[in-house]
Amino acid sequence: MEDLLYLYGLIPAEEGGQSLPDLKGFDGIGDIYTIPVGKITAIACNLDSEMYSEEMLKERINNDMEWLQEKAFHHHETVLKLSRIYTIVPLKFCTLYKNQDSLNTAVTTNEAKLISAFDLIKGNEEWNLKIYSDDKLLKKQVSENNPTIEAKKEEINQLSKGRQFFEKKKLDKLIESELEAEKNKISEKIHVGLKEYVLRGDVKKSWSNEVTGRKENMTWNGVYLVSKTKVEPFLEEIQRYEKYMKEDGWKFEATGPWPAYHFTSF
Amino acid sequence: MACLPFYKLLISEDEYMYSVRDTIENKEIGLIDILDVILDKGVALKADLVISIAGVDLVYLDLRLLIASVESLVQAKQEGRKTISSAEFDLEKEALIDATNQPDKWKN
Known about the structure:
Helices cover about 50% and strands about 25% of the residues of chain A. Chain A is built from nine helices and nine strands. In chain A, the strands form two sheets. In chain A, strands 1, 2, 3, 4 and 5 form a five-stranded antiparallel β-sheet that branches. Chain A has a four-stranded antiparallel β-sheet with strand order 7-8-6-9, covered by helices on one side. Chain A is elongated, with a radius of gyration of 25 Å. The chains are: A alpha+beta, B mainly alpha. Chains A and B meet through helix 1, helix 2, strand 5, helix 8 and helix 9 of A and helix 2, helix 3, strand 1, strand 2 and helix 4 of B.
């Protein structure tokens, strides 16, 4: 049976002349290589279709997290190395094609879209900013400084003991929702502030603590397309936020430059 | 005046320090950060990860389930390289399926 093709990324054909670094493919045995498809060059490797069958992939992803971890790192490192050399539209983890014909068809159909994607990302970089907050600390601040909560507290103090008990429970809920609103307001303000330095900025889903394994809550997961010349001021601005907000329980984590996974699609 | 080497006259003191960018680029990236990026195209984060061969979808994975499992593996490793048994894994998996109220996509 024919080998499958594991696709890492797509680059403009005119950049395909630069020699490809020696990199091992997904199975750790074969090499990655280029496949010209008109104005686009694909970077891929072969995979044995029997060893990497649907069942095998299912089984591995289902039951073998070490395998997943190793392969996720492999994908990331390979695309990252390529992104340092080429203008690359990176592919999602485990994008497989049955054969070269099916890859050719997919690339040809999307040629115009790919070319405009190259234009968008050339000379620019993708950066990620995750903002974390210490909610205990923030909750204290909100419950002490928020006018809505202040008013509610006053109101409760006027009530009988029995009513106070129930109203205080309600107050806790109010504090929680005010806290969320406050966190969003602050993060959005930062996001808008950062947009001055970037070409595009999007918001992604924030991860729960079970996923991040951290005690602080992720309040913001932003992704930005930044011109190379603006990266330093963009990061310095984040550092300034960090400096001024650290004591209030905020943490800023920028990572990058990432291949433009978010700002391109295929 | 002390004689400064020529290049020092041209480069300001700031440029001797590492840029913010260098500091960040050299930091180790966590697996979650990588999965957040390579599995997700942003918009489709809530959607399932699709592994496809020639456009035919093969495997649907609930991303939350996947990432939670990876996280527990990372934690298990940190706690003295204890590996999770498949029975424990199945239990966690069931708990997650219950919690997320999603059908068991892991069934063959």
